[in-house]
Write a structure and sequence with these properties.
Elements lengths: L1 E5 L2 E3 L5 E8 L7 E7 L6 E6 L6 E3 L7 E6 L4 E6 L8 E8 L13 E2 L3 E5 L1
Parallel strand pairs: 2-11
Antiparallel strand pairs: 1-3, 3-8, 4-5, 4-9, 5-6, 7-8, 9-10, 9-11
Amino acid sequence: VQLVESGGGSVQAGGSLRLSCAYSGDIYDSYCMAWFRQTPGKEREGVAVIEGADGTTTYADSVKGRFTISKANTKNTLYLQMNSLQHEDTAMYYCAAKLPFECYVDSSDFEYWGQGTQVTVS
């Protein structure tokens, strides 16, 4: 299993970025997939999840209305569209995958993780 994030970078407040996560191996369309973020000294925060079965999405309150998670099964790619970025969104962003049970934004049992991509908002 491999997950590789891309699309991070530096952006001014109010700007937008789209993160991508290319996945391969034993990650099936039915899996629960998510984006997390972490800054030094803080706990990892679930940002958004998408259920594999029906595409239901859930967001952390801090990003609701600004971020959109989506998935292209034919491309084995997970996305996170981030709009109206704020300084507080600065973090390392990780994509993750798990079996399709209890697919919540605060789930702690994600099994597969990428290496992360840095987002800096100034």
